[in-house]
């Protein structure tokens, strides 16, 4: 009896199921992450203005220190997924353990730098004399949790590579609940003030790291993978992460430059910019969830040597990105009369934010393509190209953004420059995806 041929519709449905299965839990875990800071802000905010200002400075430094190492999740997802596709779960988990050891080493190095230099780092932010002591206290204590935070990134990459995005969601939700309870208990119950909030975050992050390690170690024992550090494997993980580090730093530079330009435009523009940037970041979570699915799915297909499956999955995920971006853009336009007043009652800020917000909404389909192709190329291990493309994008964005105050146009023109940045990324990523040069099969790239 001959087997019925697989129709394009059946293929699309299979890809849709895979994307939804991975992307929906990933979105939940991504949203849970910024909630940690929101809880800290809500608890510390009742201590006083100086404490809240100190938290703002310290958390900005902490987020920067951790976010530059996001490659621990991205590179690990791609490497582990390839080995899963090749059918070698033992090697997949061994690769994951190498990344976790790298995370511990990097975390220890960052702690060794941050704790003694905390007052200097806080001063660089121009903090007031009243806020600086609180910022230093929070930063020094919370820095102790950085190794755990980096382990969480690496272990999340391991599980995503193993096609499991549900466990990270469960751990993130449990961590969020624990962080909230610990913050309230230590800040008010134990009367530790802002130090209690920092300790609550450290303990919650350590608990999350332990939970991830339990899951990964259990898998390692099941498949006979070694838990010992391997110098060659750790070095390979670091080398794979360097291009993604360049990409991440370039993207961070774009956001910092945009904020600096907005500040030069005036108080109402920088206030409106922060509102729009917060929305832009929220929209990015939805699109990044599809990108995470892309990392895991593409890595698995290439590891299995299935180039046709990789191409079909790429095509389908791009369609998802465009559709999701269009829906998000429409929602932003419809919700704008309600959204902006949530953040400010100042009519001048609202007036500055409204046209820029429409630019962001119209650009969401472009963002959808960018996020998806970014994830696909990460899943393919095409980090060096992503680094070069992001450096080119940064080189185009810098003059466009710096000309905004000179040429006029205000905040709307600045977000036009941000859209130019995303369009440049889209073009570079689309050209790469069309070339097929990213399609390299095998357990390793």
Automatic annotation (TrEMBL):
Keywords: Cell membrane, Membrane, Transmembrane, Transmembrane helix, Transport. One of its GO terms (molecular function) is xenobiotic transmembrane transporter activity. The keyword Iron does not apply. Pfam families: MatE (PF01554). Its main location: membrane. One of its GO terms (cellular component) is plasma membrane. The keyword Metal-binding does not apply. It is a multi-pass membrane protein. It is found in: Cell membrane. The chain crosses the membrane at residues 19-37, 57-80, 101-126, 138-162, 169-190, 196-217, 275-299, 320-340, 352-373, 385-407. Belongs to the multi antimicrobial extrusion (MATE) (TC 2.A.66.1) family. NCBIfam families: matE (TIGR00797). This is MATE family efflux transporter. It comes from Streptomyces phaeolivaceus. The lineage of its organism: Bacteria, Bacillati, Actinomycetota, Actinomycetes, Kitasatosporales.
């Amino acid at each position: 009896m001959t087997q019925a041929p697989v129709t394009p519709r059946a293929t699309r449905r299979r890809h849709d199921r895979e994307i939804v299965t991975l992307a929906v839990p990933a979105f939940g875990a991504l949203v849970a992450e910024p909630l940690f800071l929101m809880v800290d802000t809500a608890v510390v905010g009742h201590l006083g203005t100086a404490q809240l200002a100190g938290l703002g400075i310290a958390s900005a430094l902490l987020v920067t220190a951790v976010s530059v190492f996001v490659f621990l999740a991205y590179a690990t997802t791609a490497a582990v997924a390839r080995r899963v596709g090749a059918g070698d779960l033992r090697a997949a988990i061994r690769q994951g353990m190498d990344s976790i050891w790298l995370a511990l080493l990097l975390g220890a190095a960052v702690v060794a730098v941050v704790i003694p230099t905390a007052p200097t780092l806080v001063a660089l932010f121009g903090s007031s004399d009243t806020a600086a002591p609180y910022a230093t206290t929070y930063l020094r204590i919370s820095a102790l949790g950085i190794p755990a935070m980096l382990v969480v990134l690496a272990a999340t990459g391991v599980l995503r590579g193993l096609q499991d995005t549900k466990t990270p969601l469960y751990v993130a939700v449990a961590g969020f609940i624990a962080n909230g309870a610990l913050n309230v208990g230590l800040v008010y119950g134990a009367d530790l003030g802002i130090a209690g909030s920092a300790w609550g975050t450290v303990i919650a992050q350590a608990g999350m790291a332990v939970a991830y390690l339990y899951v990964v170690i259990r898998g390692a024992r099941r498949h006979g993978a070694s838990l010992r550090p391997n110098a060659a494997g750790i070095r390979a993980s670091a080398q794979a992460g360097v291009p993604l580090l360049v990409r991440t730093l370039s993207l961070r530079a774009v956001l910092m430059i945009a904020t600096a330009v907005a500040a030069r435009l005036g108080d109402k523009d920088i206030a409106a910019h922060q509102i729009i940037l917060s929305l832009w970041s929220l929209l990015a979570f939805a699109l990044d969830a599809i990108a995470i699915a892309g990392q895991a799915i593409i890595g698995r297909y290439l590891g299995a040597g299935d180039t046709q499956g990789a191409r079909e999955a790429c095509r389908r995920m791009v369609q998802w990105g465009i559709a999701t971006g269009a829906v998000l853009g429409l929602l932003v336009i419809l919700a704008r009369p309600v959204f902006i007043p949530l953040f400010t009652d100042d009519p001048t800020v609202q007036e500055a934010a409204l046209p820029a917000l429409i630019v962001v909404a119209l650009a969401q389909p472009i963002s959808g393509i960018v996020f998806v192709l970014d994830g696909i190329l990460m899943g393919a291990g095409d980090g060096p190209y992503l680094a070069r493309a992001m450096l080119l994008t940064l080189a185009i964005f810098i003059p466009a953004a710096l000309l905004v105050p000179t040429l006029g146009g205000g905040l709307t023109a600045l977000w036009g420059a941000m859209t130019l940045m995303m369009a440049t990324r889209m073009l570079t990523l689309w050209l790469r995806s069309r070339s097929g040069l990213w399609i390299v099969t095998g357990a390793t790239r």
